[in-house]
User: What shape does this take?
Amino acid sequence: MDKIRLTGGRALHGKIRISGAKNATLPLLAACLLSDKPLTLTNVPRLSDVETFEALLAHLGVEVHQDSARGITRLCAKEILSHEAPYDHVRKMRASVLVLGPLLARCGEVRLSLPGGCAIGARPIDVHLKGLEALGAQIHLEEGYVVAKAPQGLVGGEYTFPIVSVTGTENIIMAACLAKGTTVLKGAAQEPEVTDLIHCLKAMGACIEGEGTSTLTIYGPTNFVEATHAVLPDRIETGTYAMAVGMVGGSVELTHTSLSLLPTVVPLLEAVGLVFEETQDGFKVSYDGHGLKALDLTTSVYPGFPTDLQAQYMALMTLAKGECHIQETIFENRFMHVPELARLGANISVKGNTAHVRGVPHLIGAPVMATDLRASVCLVLAGLAAEGETVISRVYHLDRGYEEIENKLSACGVSIERLVEGNDHASSQFVSQAQSANNR
Ligand code: UD1
Assistant: This one.
């Protein structure tokens, strides 16, 4: 398994091109299953989660053509050859559950391996199933699989989400596009990735009202047409690099992104001590290194502070002046980065869903282990500031969601390299790739 080695202490200066959002790309890929017409996605990030999802689509019979160098994926689900999402695919990535709605709507039947628990909590899919039942699906469980049927096709209905679920909302919106009649969804997730999916579905011919709000109306069935859609910038990657600047100081321009994607994050980071300035192509984030203010945080659904930035914020707070409380309200087991941060010298205690962080004057490099996607990037952030060398193992977690992270950071002056499995020397390609990372 690859590792990342970095030496901390250098301020960041330069430019980072933000990639397309992983969490937008996966539902957009799933949307191709609804139609026999081609769908072209641009600004697609090169990530292992995207590859895993494309492999699942290919298994289902979708023609997938990737032009990775240009970030373009062409999809055509002319014919669906299988309506089963097998264990081996779902086990690798629980977002595979996103094929449930579109496949059921298109084929009238689907078998999906139950995702089961995962590193950051139990993560059930009950609201996905209840939402589909509201559209007329019959659902039962069979040998670890969800079997959903709608032999006469789905019919429009009304469903109120009892909790806000991002992929749940996306699944039901997609299914409703092929249901006969009007569907009204209340309590829908308002995350920008949901809105991006709606924009793409509209380009594909769907008639949907209410995007960006918690009530959505979908008029089905859709007569699909060929479409092209550019994936939304990754707001989590954007927030991560902004906080990286806060860890060590410096000034970095984040391009192909926007401050408007982070309505709650930016004001909090400003209060903590970071400075933001809009540019033509994104924004500049700077920090003069004169002391971060410790401020409390509670994660919540959009437009609240995203759970996917909680671990990174905690890394930032390890170096703040004073102490703060970080409360996680979305997932029940999302503090696995705490013991690893402690190995670098952080002072954090956890009680229930709240972490108490007492700022320390400095962190010290050490070997640490990544446990999930966002936990692993928080260790990269901590390593940027830690004195000496930090080696992070199990970086395959990072490759799921951060495109070319070591190249993007090394282009800003960070001493960082990937140690490739079975190779005692650092990957020699990383230096030459550093310049090209931001040119795409
Ligand atoms: C998505 C994102 C993930 C992000 C999360 C919250 C993708 C691929 N993943 O995950 O990165 O951290 O939103 O913003 O876009 N729940 C239920 N029953 C359900 C569904 C969810 O109880 O049927 C609970 C979950 O356990 C969790 C909460 O609802 O506590 C939110 O989950 P949800 O929004 O569905 O998260 P994901 O869509 O899995």
User: Anything to note?
Assistant: The pocket of uridine-diphosphate-N-acetylglucosamine is lined by residues 23, 26, 95, 121, 123-128, 163, 165-168, 193, 306-308, 330-331 (CB under 6 Å). The radius of gyration is 22 Å.
